[in-house]
Design a protein that fits this description.
By secondary structure, the chain is mainly alpha-helical. Helix content is about 70%, strand content about 0%. The protein is elongated and about 70 Å long.
Length: about 120
């Protein structure tokens, strides 16, 4: 499937108009429509914006893959995604501290669960 067909299908699946997507990209519906028809080459920066908007990978958008999004984090609930984002922004030293803290929390929780079972 071609890139142009993909962006059209994604737009239609999202129940959006060319005007909606054109506005999102900061252009007109007519200009955006040329991307969908293959009359105009879409800049990489706009392709990235579209991939982010639809929550798909660039490979999917370009027709190089049929896997919609290769980033498994999109399958996570919002609170877990946020925690992962925070973790990724930490320094290596602070990642180690966070991992140690989480291990301690997990151990404490397991001990509490065992204690409750025995009572």
């Amino acid at each position: 499937m071609s890139f142009y067909q993909r962006i059209r299908d994604l737009r239609e699946d999202a129940d959006k108009t060319q005007s909606d997507i054109g506005s999102y990209l900061g252009t007109t519906a007519q200009y955006y429509g040329k991307y969908e028809k293959g009359e105009r080459e879409i800049p990489l920066s706009r392709a990235i914006e579209l991939a982010d908007y639809y929550g798909v990978s660039l490979d999917y958008l370009a027709g190089r893959s049929n896997i919609i999004n290769s980033d498994a984090t999109t399958l996570l609930p919002e609170d877990e995604r946020r925690l992962l984002e925070v973790y990724r922004n930490l320094t290596e030293r602070n990642k180690g501290k966070a991992e140690l803290f989480l291990e301690q929390l997990e151990k404490s929780q397991m001990e509490q669960t065992i204690e409750k079972k025995h009572n």
